[in-house]
Amino acid sequence: MFNSAEDTKKIETLIELNSLINSDYTDLNALLTRITESAMILTGGEASSLLLLNTFEQKLYFEVALGSKGDAVQKFSLKIGEGIAGWVAKHNKSLIVNDVEKDSRFFSDISKSIGYKTSSILAAPMRIKDACIGVIELINKKNARHFTENDLQWLEIFANQAALAISNARVYQKTQNEIAALQDSIQSHAGFHPLKFASQEFESVMSIVKRVGVTNSSVLILGESGVGKELIAEQIHLASKHANGPFIRVNCAALPEGMIESELFGHIKGSFTDAINDRVGKFETASNGTIFLDEIGELSLAVQAKLLRVLEEGIYEPLGSNEQKKVQARILFATNRDLAKLVEEKHFRQDLYYRLNVIPINVPPLRKRLADIPVLTDFFLQNACREMNKPDGGIEATAMEALLDFPWPGNVRELKNVIERAVVLSPDGVIRREGLQLGNQHLDKGLYFKGKRLKESVNVFKKHFIISCLEENSWNQTITARQLGIQRTYLSRLMRELEINH
Ligand SMILES: Nc1ncnc2c1ncn2[C@@H]1O[C@H](COP(=O)(O)OP(=O)(O)OP(=O)(O)O)[C@@H](O)[C@H]1O
Description:
The protein is built from 21 helices and 15 strands. By secondary structure, the protein is of the alpha/beta class. Residues 441-448 have low confidence and may be disordered. Helix 7 packs across helix 8. The structure holds adenosine-5'-triphosphate (ATP). Residues 193, 195-197, 223, 225-231, 294, 336, 376, 412-413, 416, 475, 502 line the site of adenosine-5'-triphosphate (ATP).
């Protein structure tokens, strides 16, 4: 079979395709286009197509369509058994038809609709482990000649190449999905949150995370409420040499003023009225790991002064003790406040600000990284469906458009809430535009109060009223407490009691 100069060319092309398939060539469509095009050129077809079988729908879809009407062909699909390609898929056998008009299997609708005269077809199945996964076909042998058995043998070789490439890509994709699922489960078992993104903007943030991860410097993570600052802190920890050590999160806004020092640095028994036992501080607990101080903008000036000393000298003293302890943890900070403005207003120490701002990481708001919305939606949807034991019916295109249009003042946290709520309200697991209730998540009287007793209803009201004030103030508890006319410590207690997490 391999004796002419033409055959030598074919073999060279096959070798080249083989090495592409064996390399880490990840663009499957480009590879399949290359294979289909080579088959067409080397066996003298005028046009060629590669169709993939969707086993669920029992239909063949055009993955590649080359030739003068290629683009027009691509919108069609064929049922199994329909047309020459459908016959090949159904019988898992190759076929040469040199006069289509005389063959009842020929399906003329596509040719007629696109205005293309088809006279001859050569088609071969693509197989993975003997099962047909699609068809590769050539249309019209050039110069009004006929397709031959030799052409068919070559087409079968190209079909095998394509099947191999598809099989590789599917195994690769499956493995990637499994690795991602395992990573998610390992991270969430260890108390870390899986992080999803697809945007260039977030990619840039992650490249900084990787670079700072390996250093031991303290880092300041900035961004609006709900953008994922805590997750960034987790990733810095995971990228660091302390990844196996503890990751200790301290929400500075949730601690009453008088407790912060003891919480961070520890105290010895009797150092103040309530100190009935020695207490180990979070800095010590975080030894050989990372301490993440969230909402740093809420710290009092007195605590800021102590923190500055910790940063500058690397030592601290537990309350009531003269013993100096060495800081053995990596320190990360985050805030959604404008620290420069707080400095101007004299609510934040300038020297501490300069000390913190050495390596700032700015996490952009969700509205500035639209490419993340579909992946995050998908992730929250799958999680919510699994937790609520509902089928994942996917999301309608109009609903996705609405998500992409929305400004997301509460960022990723708000998106998560919107999706969870839409899943609760969806009868069949499909997320539709009207089920999203964008910007209207707080109080739906009918839904929340129905059948509840007075105390419960008051609590439901309190919870939603507080959440809406917190969101209005970017979850700043000091400002919210002032707006509500209560102490910040009382607000923290209410948040704990009413299970308001963010
Ligand atoms: N890229 C992401 N992938 C998956 N989940 C995310 C992502 N970003 C944020 N989330 C989720 O959104 C919620 C808010 O994230 P996180 O608490 O990290 O935000 P934050 O910026 O620290 O907010 P705050 O300033 O209010 O403390 C969490 O439930 C988190 O798991």
